[in-house]
Every structure is written in C-alpha cells, then in structure tokens.
Amino acid sequence: MFSKEKQELKRVPMMPVRDMVIFPQMMTPFIVGREASVRALEEALAGDKRIFLATQHDASVDDPKPEEIYTVGTLANIVQSVKLPDGNIKVLVEGAERAKVVQITTDEGCFRANLRLVPSKIEGTPQTEQLISRVSNLFEQYVKLSQSLNYDTMIAAVRVDDPGKLSDTIAANLTLPVEDKQELLETFDPVARLNRVAEILEVEIDKLNVDRNINSRVKRQMERAQKEYYLNEKLKAIQKELGRGEKNEIDELKKKIDTAGMSKDVKEKAVQELKRLEMMPPMSAESTVSRNYLDWLLAVPWKKKSKEIRDIDVAERTLEEDHHGLDKIKERILEYLAVRQLVKNPRGSILCFVGPPGVGKTSLAMSIGRATGRKFVRVSLGGVRDEAEIRGHRRTYIGALPGQIIQMMKKAGTVNPVFVLDEVDKMSMDFRGDPSAALMEVLDPELNCAFTDHYLDVEYDLSKVMFICTANVLHTIPQPLQDRMEILRLAGYTEMEKLQIAKRFLVKKQREAAGLTEENLTFIDDGITHLIRHYTHEAGVRNLEREIGSICRKLARKVVKEGRDFKIEITPANINDFLGVIRFREIWAEKHNEVGLATGLAWTEVGGQVLGTEAQLMEGKGRLTLTGKLGDVMQESAQAAMSYVRSRTSQFGLPKDFYRHLDIHVHVPEGAIPKDGPSAGITIGTAIVSALTRIPVRCDVAMTGEITLRGKVLPIGGVKEKLLAAHRMGLRTVVLPKDNEKDLAEIPPEVQSTLALKFVETMDEVLQFALERPLEPAVVSPVPEVAAKYEGEIEKDQGLTN
Ligand SMILES: Nc1ncnc2c1ncn2[C@@H]1O[C@H](COP(=O)(O)OP(=O)(O)OP(=O)(O)O)[C@@H](O)[C@H]1O
Ligand SMILES: [Mg+2]
Known about the structure:
Bound molecules: adenosine-5'-triphosphate, magnesium ion
Number of strands: 24
Distance between the termini: 113 Å
Helix content: 40-55%
Largest sheet: 7 strands, mixed
Strand content: 15-25%
Number of helices: 26
Shape: elongated
C-alpha cells in the first residue's frame, strides 16, 4: 500500500533541466552552463551533494521563472562533476527520490526549493507480481525491437520486483516526448504508474513492429533499385567503352528507317516505335520487344528489287537447260511469262504445278526464278494448320514472330522473288483458324498488295512477287484457292524420258556432288534402264536420282582408296555390286491368270498405280465385305458393281438367288494407301464375275472405268498417270472408257505403241477383253455344295449389304 508518511526538506539547491526528465534510479550525465544552475550545483557540491532537478516547460527559455518549471522533479545525488575548459561543467547525477515542490525561492542568484518527498515503497500483492512480469516481458520485446538499447544491460536493469523502481527504470529508458515522461513522473501511485508504462510499451511495440516492416521493405526496394541502377550504369559504361553508345544506335535506326523505302504509313509507324524505344530503359524487356519489331520492319524488303530478265528467248533457253522434256509445261510457262509482261495484274495468274513426287515441280519453279532473274524462296505448307504460321502472331504474345510469308520475304531480300508455296494440298484446318483463308489473301492479286501480317501490323505489298504453288493432288485444295490458280499437270515420266533425264541431268549432278569426273564413272544406257526397272517404282525420278547418288558415293570411296585413275562403267551386270539385289522383280505381266483377281489402275498421290483387286466367295448370308482402306465413293461403286452382277444372273449362268447363301469379300491390297474414286468400278465388277463364274481374269489386262447399275462404263480422270503406270509395270492391254479417248492426245507415243488400248462403253465389253474365255450361259451354280443346300429352302431374302 501507498505509504502516507510525509517527509519534507527545506531550501534544497534546485536546477531546471531542459529536454529531459530525470527519474529516480537513473544515472544521467549532462552539461551545466547557465549561471544560476552553476551556482546551485556549486552549493550542492559544497553541502550534501544533493540537488533537486525539475524540467522546465519550454526548453527554449534560457531563464525560466519558477512558474515555468514543473513542480514535480527528482532529488538527485551528484556522483561526479568535471569542469570543462570552456567553463561549462559536466556532471553525472543519480536520481534518488521523487519530490514535489512546496515553495521556490530565488535569492542569491539561484533557485532553492522546499520539497515534500514522495514515498515509493508498497506491499507486493499477487496482482502486482503479475503486472511486473507482464511489463518485464513487454519491455524485453521493446528492447529487442528498438535498436538503440543494449539488451543485456536493460534486461539486468529491470530484474527488480518493486513496481515503483521497475516503472521508473523503464520510463527513464523509453524514447518518449518530455510531456509523457513528466506525466509518468507525476503519477505517484507505483501500480498506476506501472500500468501506464505497460500501456505505453504496448503502443510503442506496435509502432516499432510497423516501423520494422516498413523499414525492411524499403530496404529491400532500395537494394534492388540500387543494384539495377548500378548494373545499368556499368552496362552503359561498357557500351560506351565499346563505342556503342545508345544515342548512336537510335540515330542509326533513324537513318535506316529513312533509307528503307517504306511507304508513308509504315514509316510513320516505325518512327513512332523508335520514339517509344528511346523513352524506355535500354535493358528492359519491353525495349527488347520494341527493338525486335523495328529490326523486323527494317529487315523486310520495301523497295529493293532484282532486275528482271524480260527476254522470252533467254527464259526458254534456261528452262530447256534445266529440264528435259515437259514440252507442254514449258510452253505454258513461257506463255504465262509473256502475259505477265504485257498485262500488269493478270487474273488467276498464280501457277500451280500438280503431280506426283519427284516429277520436277519444285525444280521447275526454281528454274523459272533463274529464267526471270528473280530470287527464289520456298515455304512448305505441308501440315500447316494454324493461320498464325502464315500470318504471324500479334506482338503482344511472348516470343511473337512474323508468319512464314514475311519471314521468307526477309530471306529473299527483294520485293519481287519467285515464291514457291510447296504442298498446298497438305494444308489442314482446325480451331486455330483457317490457313487457306490467309493464303487466299496472299494469292489474290486484288488483296495481296495490302497483305497484313499480325506481327508487322502494317500493310505489305506482295503484288510484285511471283507465286508458284505445288501440290500432289488437286482435290484437297479448297475450291476458292484453286480458282485463283492456273493448274499445270505433271503426270510423270516414261521409261525413255527417265533415261534421258538421268543421262542429261541426274548422273552429272550426282557425279559432281560426289566429287567424281566422267573419267571415273560412266553409265551405259542399259545400266540406267536396269536401275529404272528394278530399283525404282515411281512416277517421277526422285528415287532414281537417289540410287544414282548412292552409286556415286560408293565409288567416291573406291577412288579415294585406289587413286584418281580409277575407272568404272555401270552396266546391268555390276549394279548389284553397289545397290544389292534388285528390288522390283515382279512385273505384272509375268503373273498367271487367276480366278477372282483383276488388275485395276488407280490414281493416287504418288501418281498412277497398278492395283490387284481380289474377290472371294464364302458360304454365308449375302454380305458384301470391302477391305483395303477404301473411301466412300469406292465402296458405293463396289455396290453398284454387285447390283449389276445380280441383274445379269442368267447371262452369267447363275441361279437367280445365288447371293443368298454366299458372302462376297472384295479386297484391294496395298492397304496402306488410301484409295477412293469411282474408277475401280469395272475392276471390282470383273473380279466378282470371275469369282462367281470361275473363269480366270487375264493378268496382262489392266482396266479403269466407272460402272453404272445398268452396266454402262463412264469416263474417269488421270488417264495419263494410269497409262504411265501400266506401261511402267509391263502390262500389254488396258481397258478404258470410250469417253476417255480424247485424252489420247497427251499420252506419249512410246506408251501408246507398247500398250493395246481398248475403249469400251459397257461392262459386257470389259468382260470380253478381261476374262480368259467367253462367258457360257450354260454354267450352273459356282459353288455346287452351297447350291445343294439351299435347293428348295425358302429363306427370307436378306439382300446384299455390307
Ligand atoms: N524433267 C526433268 N529434267 C531434269 N531433272 C528433273 C526433271 N524432272 C525432275 N528432275 C529432277 O528430279 C529431282 C526431283 O524433282 P523435284 O524436287 O522438283 O520434285 P517435286 O515434283 O517437287 O516433288 P515433290 O512433290 O516430292 O516435292 C530434282 O533433282 C529435279 O531436278
Ligand atoms: Mg517439291
């Protein structure tokens, strides 16, 4: 409990202090300079060394009046005093007791005070003990947070169990405004004071916590900013050292923009971008994006042009030099070049070469580039399914680039190259947009003067480019695209033509590529023909060229081993020394006539093809099964063929309901190649009839034609490709629809002379040529055991379905 005992002191020397409050228990050093203070100090030193210290209200007042000093202060013992050279005195005092002023006197040039001491001892209670431990904890936290106090001394200092002493020690060490400290000094009840200290500590701890968070955040930011600044400055210094000042770079870009020959709009855009670039910190991510963009704008050609060769005779000579044969195609190309010279923007003026692989589509396009003095670039559209591949991605995408068209224009470096779009037929379409729509904009002469790439984002003029497309087949090219093209078909070569091509071009090319000369290596004609017949199986000459190349490489090794004089002549006899055993022995004509096996001619992506078509009968319920990767149209034409057969039972000597107890399986081998189209109709019909009548089909007769339900034969496409294939495979007779007779004009004479062509109008005629012997109306059921079974039975007609 608070002691009521009162103790009074008279005329104690008193000193006003500024800017601080002295607490009991507190050791405080300070400087004394004011005259009155020095006098009071001297008096105290002369006496019992006790002095009363009280804080003045306003620190800036030099000569405070008694009423300008707080009336509660601390009676202190002077521990030490040192006179300084400048006349001031440095003292160290230790607060002893709280005291309240009763009266102040100011005689003899200093303050003296009559004081009443404030007693501090109280009896401890459990509550005060709790309070003490709480405050001690709080203070410990406070010391940890505030960096100005020494942890160990402070913790030692507060290890007291007297609430008055504890509160005074803590109060003395807190960083608080003078008014707050004075208020604590004037709170006489120790428990109340300790409570107040606890409150203050809580607030201060909160403040320090906030401070600390802010500080560490600020510090982190400062560190990062400083680091970046430092690195940037360093980089600049390095660049300067290397002579690549930023300023130069911007100037250089500006100069390039001025001389690039851009249109007004494009130039405006470029200048605008340059301005933005200038404002950006040089190493930032966005400045890289901006620079890349400017680099692209400057890299695509805007006005640079190759000087075109306009002499048609030169063009003719060049085409002739590069390719053997292909006379019709060359003629069309020359006409096309002539028209392009006369008319500025001829409609539908995109050439499109269609044909099997290796027939020279790409190399013809290259040759056109050479013939007209233009640069040559090529992009393959095979598998392109995303519009962005053609037209690019917007610049907002990370890592965006222009599309293929602009990339290739950059590669060409001129505004008028020959631009080959390879494999337009292999383009597909999905949710990412339709690339053929973008391609249309490229190819349409009315649109392509303002082609927009998403990345460049400015109009680009493609109208001076000569576009040439290549494709293996036409039907997968979207019609609107086809409409803009002038289609030139390359069907493939005859054996004679291949021989000539090999002699004139391929051997020379491959020999040179392998570093050999004519002295080292020659091919006799028979050798090449042997190669064509037994090592390749194609419409074009790509594999032929590869085989010749592989012979050349093997010889190169020999030449290196045996010396430059090594010489060899390639003949049919020594080819297998280089290429191993022959690969294609099976020539169609060497086969046997068989029941249910007819020879068809198909037109696929790799050119004309000879395909055997098999029909097989089985005991069953009238199903028609078709296998061999056949398309819908082909399936339907098989059904038409079946219906035709059923309508002619009497002619073929079959019971009317023969089909009810039979399953028919039709298979077209070489299952990997997808086949479609109606042209296999008569072949399937022939195979089925042969299987039913058990009359073998002639294996040297090939056929192609669409069949109707009534047995009429309709015309088909790809006659040239198919006849070339028949010729290649050594077949003797080909049955064709009468309406295809007009196509004869484009068939090479050597093919016509080796093949007997039979033009027919009905299925009956087909069978006449194809079956080994004429039909005999008297023949009975083809499968006697089956016939016996169903004799007399009345079964529900299931019809023929597949
Ligand atoms: N008539 C020809 N005269 C000379 N060389 C030819 C002839 N036809 C093709 N070639 C040569 O055959 C090779 C293959 O031709 P190219 O690459 O042009 O075929 P392609 O028709 O483009 O085939 P793909 O459809 O596979 O692209 C080339 O080296 C080419 O020079
Ligand atoms: Mg090609």
